Amino acid sequence: MNQPVLSIDIAKGKSVAAAFTSYGVQVKKPFSFSHSPDHVSSLLSVLVQLEESTTLRPTVVMEATGNYSKPIASFFFSHGYPVFLLNPLTTHELKKRSTRKVKTDPIDAIRIANAFYLGEGTPIMPMDEKVTELRFLCRQHAQWKALLGEVQLQFRSILDLAFPGYDKAFQNIFNPSSIQLLTKFPSPSALLTADKEDVLTILMLNRRGRTWNEDKYAQLLGIARSSLPDPCGSQAHIFAMQNFIGLFKAYQEGITALEKQMESLVQESSAYHLLRSIPGVGPITAAMIHAEIGDIKRFPSVKQLTAFAGLDSSVYESGTFKANQNRISKRGSAYLRTALYQATVGGISKQIHGPRNPILWQYYQQKRLEGKPAKVAIVATSNKLLRMIYGILSNDAPFQSK
């Protein structure tokens, strides 16, 4: 391949680059540069020299290393150079195959170039600025939801020490009335000595009738009388609970703010509304799917979109052996894969008048009858949903059940 290449081994704050005019022909040995505007801009002269000597537009190749590679990749892409990103697993496999197990940044820069010449790498495609912004917000939303889940788990473990049995009184201990009740009365003794009307005022936040809340108050008193909290470090437990309540509220507020911002970005997107036409695809899930896929024209075929989502089957063959039960590759967008899984679960859920999405439900049942475990069947149905999404977005037509 006679393609000039600038290969870059990305690291935090400082990287190593090497220049090639073709496969195996290195014209500039690996050199380091910092991620400052001046140093990164100086690489443009290397690209100009490559183009002058080969009369071909050089390609910039680097590993996809998240936040470290994004600014560098965007810089070269904005200057009109094609940029290819490699999956770090690819260069890792090349390293394992080498006779000597050597790991240095200069050698990695050469490996990155070799991987590209061997046909590896995915080109960066232009994305709408709003979609790029939406993707960042959606990923932040997913991360904040995960952090909120961690806070809830930690809170429950502390609550079991400070107020055992409290969770029996509420279907959801994180509803507003429950959280406010624990903020003011965080222990059995605090609740037992509290004024009845003070407790009822908080319980009435659930907007149920007085009689229902009187019964709830009596239930809470019964739990408090039979509760046996750990006396060792009781004040520390209460202090920890109050801190977790503060974190819980902060994360909830942050998630709500993110959702409002996401909603404002997607309202004018036709792709978002097409996704919302699919039964089971909610507003947050639709925003995530749209943010990860972007323009459907980036994917010439549904097979490429499936690979991008990591829902394609991994292949294992050796000699005459060919595995017939391969797992999905999981090499694509984990965010897209999660959103598809959630949408599938929503689609196959039963409502009063039957399953929410009959097409997905029938496909899921077919896989279950084939003997697939529930989760495996859901993943297979997620693949079905993705093919459905590809057709809807490609044809610019909403979902039709028939």
Automatic annotation (TrEMBL):
> Looking at the record's lineage, which domain of life comes first?
Bacteria
| Protein name (record) | IS110 family transposase
| All copies of domain Transposase IS110-like N-terminal, residue ranges | 8-164
Task: Provide the species name.
Answer: Paenibacillus selenitireducens
Q: Name one GO molecular function term.
A: transposase activity
**Per its UniProt record, what InterPro entries does this chain match?**
Transp_IS110-like_N (IPR002525), Transpos_IS110 (IPR047650), Transposase_20 (IPR003346)
Entries under Pfam families matching the protein: DEDD_Tnp_IS110, Transposase_20
Q: Which residues form the Transposase IS116/IS110/IS902 C-terminal domain?
A: 273-349
